[in-house]
Amino acid sequence: MIGLNQTVTTLTLSQAFNILIHLRSLIYIKISWAYFFKRLNSFRRRIRPQHNWMASFAMEDFVGNGALKDLLPKLLEEGWDDVPTLKVMNSEDMDSINMTRQQKDAMEIRSYLHDRTLMQYGDQLEISGKCLPELLGLSAVDLSAQFGMKRGHIARFMDRSSPCEADPLPALPLRQKNPAPSRDNSIYKSELSSLNSRKMQIMMRSFGRNSNKSEVTVEQSLADLKIKEGHIFKGIVAAAPAESRACGCVKAPPIVENVAPYSAIENILIQKLTPEYKIGTQRLVKTKTPPMKAMELWREKPAVLLCIRRPGCIMCRAEAHQLYVKKPIFDALGVQLYAVIHEHIEAEVNDFWPRYWGGVVLYDKSMEFFKALGGGKLLKDKFISGFLFNPRAIANYKRARAMGVEQNFKGEGEIKGGLFIVGKGKSGIAYQFIERNFGDWAPSTEVIEICTRLQNLQPSQHGTKSSQEYE
Q: Residue 334 carries which DSSP code?
């Protein structure tokens, strides 16, 4: 005992502290992994594959076996051929295709359920003959007894705020302003244009309403989507600054400070795995499509490219879903939506599309888009340090779970993703967002703002650019 005490006294305070931290980490890691695999096995036992469609973008899943099923041919003929567009129908549009009262009630119920990823109850609620206000007036006991609704699902059903509209978590102190625009990398203009297309007006009324009132002016609705005065663009910086992990003992991986050069992405070889979903579309591209250069994607129209870390990840699925549900906005702005994955597991793609993403899915085998996000190298983080020790990542996970999204653990999940907005032709990268913490989303208000500015882009802004590129 004396010898031991003598040994201890020779250690400095700093050395003793480091030893304690090391021992604590080893114990915590061991416990964390044991707990994680215990929870994982429990979760796998509870997964019900038949509910994978509970927020699907497949039209057949959305209409179910109710009153809207026989209306599918008419919807296709009139151009209401995807779920996000269908959900923004107003009473005038419904009357124009002679929808019955029962079909209108079914549309309202199913749109409400889709926003809350509760589509598994669509047929049951529709058969009850009740309209949405009547269903919302039922007690939790009645919902459980009459429709077999689970307690957590009842809470989500009774919450009239739409989870799919939830953007990033409450604002935290911002790290930096967006980098100054450059001729090659950024495209900005000062004012929003007036959006007068009929489709946009319909969409705006839908996204702008806070209750059952459907008649809201375009100006009022557009104001909800505008960047507020004093807003500072996060630009390439993720939704929050790097937070302290494990009491400051673990440092967050650094991220690049500058927007990637256009030359880093224009010649990337990508492969199309799925088409944009429409009624009757095949689930996957049956024949293997040849690789193509990425520049072909935005040759005619601007493009938003969502780089997915892992299609089975609950946070990635939630991000994809909340972005694609706003498809009518991007359609009206003339902007295309693409999801980019770096690992091709066909079963995973089939499970991801069109349930959580109804747009084109691209395969970036060389991971060049993901390298561009990291300034030429992949941005990676470990499960222990990047998730278990990161309160922001855990908060992102809870946000995704609150949306009722399912998950699996197949594939590589440490390579971080992000989002690019690329202008038409060779005009450059307008916006770049990096997933600093697992599950960070690019704020929808920023994405929509940049896409609106792209719509207003004038050829003269780019000096040496050829006018043909913008015609």
A: T
Given pLDDT bands bounded at 50, 70 and 90, which one contains residue 285?
low
Q: What average pLDDT does range 13-42 have in this prediction? A: 50
Q: Which of 131, 164, 316, 451 is catalytic?
A: 316
Non-local CB neighbours of 297 within 8 Å, separated by 6+ positions: 270, 303, 305, 336, 338, 362, 422
pLDDT of residue 175: 33
* Three-state SS sequence of 18-58: HHHHHHHHHHHHHHHHHHHHHHHHHHHHHCCHHHCCCCCCC
Residue in 114, 444, 405, 455 with CA at minimum distance from that of residue 306 = 444
HSE, side-chain direction, 13 A CA sphere, residue 246: 17
Measure the CA–CA gap between 29 and 32, rounded to whole angstroms: 5
CA distance 413 to 99: 45
Longest dimension (CA), the chain: 93
Catalytic residue among 164, 247, 249, 313: 313
Of the pLDDT bands very low, low, confident and very high (cuts 50, 70, 90), residue 404 is: confident
Cis peptide before 354 (omega within 30 of 0): yes
pTM of the predicted structure, to 2 decimals: 0.73
d(CA 117, CA 53): 9
Q: Is 316 a catalytic residue?
A: yes
164 is known as an active-site residue: no
Bridge partners, residue 269, by sequence: 293
Given a contact cutoff of 8 angstroms between Cβ atoms, the answer to whether 462 and 319 are in contact is no
The predicted structure's pLDDT at residue 216? 43
Report how many helices (DSSP H) and strands (DSSP E) the chain contains, helices first.
Answer: 20, 7
Amino acid letter, 262 = Y
